[in-house]
Write a structure and sequence with these properties.
- The protein is an alpha/beta fold.
- The protein folds into two domains: 9-187, Rossmann fold; 204-322.
- It has helices spanning 31-43, 55-64, 81-89, 110-119, 131-143, 178-183, 189-229, 236-253, 262-277, 284-300, 307-322, and strands at 9-10, 13-14, 23-27, 48-52, 69-73, 100-105, 123-126, 148-150, 155-157.
- The chain starts with 8 loop residues before the first strand and ends with a helix.
- Residues 1-12 have low confidence and may be disordered.
């Protein structure tokens, strides 16, 4: 599929791309290719282009500068670009988790492609590529982007061909498209920021709910192992991941209507850490408290529950825990 030149009719309407205000970051270690990408995009109308030869400097840029779109090689030296993009999508890096991301690779192995997909990239381009191919992909994203899905370990574009009937139906979330907002609809910066803030809050809510479910799943696995052999050594990885989930949940509840569960998440972290220190002979009281904390977290996100009701239950659970 070949897109017409910028500003020409597309279909029955006219799409005019004005990329001059789009803040673009390019990450490519090969200086000739990096210069070529800059030239291609400059010729297409981009003016705010920052380019980098390594992950470290690109990460600093994403952390501190407004960025609407990033085009970078998955194998950029000096770090892990896919992990960096995951941090962006999970709002642990930078201020805009909805920047557009095109990942480049000259070695599209199955494992690397899966890693790129799992990072939350919007698109993947295999090297070598033509100037027309790059411009076409950028224009496709400027016209529209896929809605996001949120699971316990992924935030990014929905790539499912169709929903599986035997799985939980995960809602699709429309998210801001900074590239389209600046290049096509010419949205006011303040309006775009409000859209970003609203979407961040909506995704944060989804993520907290997914974490509450994941905590219950992990605790069920740990309890099953303990009932079998009175040990949780086989669940060491589950306990470590439980700490990771609880830590991120504690971060996400700050400043939200669910801030009152932060004490419970911190208690869960301490409990899991203590069990990691006693894998072969965990304290039975620790094991007995796990499902109670899980149930309290699950109830916190039930729509029919009031804040007061859940806060009281959580307070009781924490009091019992800290009184030991």
């Amino acid at each position: 599929m070949v897109f017409p030149p910028v500003g020409r009719p597309v279909g029955v309407g006219i799409v005019e791309y004005r990329f001059g205000d789009v803040c673009l970051a390019v990450g490519e270690s090969n200086p000739q290719l990096r210069h070529s990408i800059r030239s291609i995009l400059y010729s297409s109308g981009f003016r705010e282009i920052a380019d980098f030869s390594d992950c470290e400097t690109l990460r600093d840029h994403l952390a501190n500068k407004t960025t609407d779109m990033v085009i970078a090689d998955a194998s950029l030296p000096g770090g892990d670009f896919c992990a960096m993009l995951r941090a962006v999508r999970h709002h642990r890096l930078g201020k805009n988790p909805f920047l557009l991301a095109i990942t480049l690779t000259g070695n599209p192995t199955q494992d690397l492609v899966r890693k790129i997909v799992d990072s939350g990239a919007d698109d993947l381009i295999v090297k070598p590529f033509s100037a027309d191919a790059l411009v076409e992909r950028v224009q496709v994203l400027a016209k529209g982007r896929k809605p996001f899905v949120v699971t316990h370990d992924y935030i990014g574009p929905d790539r499912r061909k169709k929903a599986r009937l035997d799985c939980e139906q995960i809602p699709l979330l429309p998210v801001p498209n900074p590239l389209r907002a600046k290049a096509v609809t010419h949205t006011e910066p303040s309006s775009l920021q409000r859209m970003i803030d609203t979407a961040i809050a909506r995704i944060n809510q989804q993520k907290m709910e997914r974490y509450a479910v994941q905590v219950g799943y992990l605790i069920d696995r740990i309890l099953s192992r303990y009932q079998l052999d009175k040990s949780v050594r086989a669940c060491e990885d589950d306990l470590k991941y439980l700490c990771t989930v609880a830590e991120d949940l504690a971060r996400r509840v700050r400043g939200t209507p669910f801030a009152y569960i932060s004490e419970l998440t911190l208690s869960l972290i301490k409990l899991a850490e203590r069990m990691l220190e006693t894998l072969d002979q965990p304290d039975h009281r620790d094991v007995e408290l796990l499902p109670k904390i899980s149930q309290a977290l699950a109830r916190a996100f039930e729509p029919q529950q009031t804040t007061k009701q859940v806060a009281h239950e959580i307070s009781e659970s924490v009091t019992k825990f800290t009184a030991r």
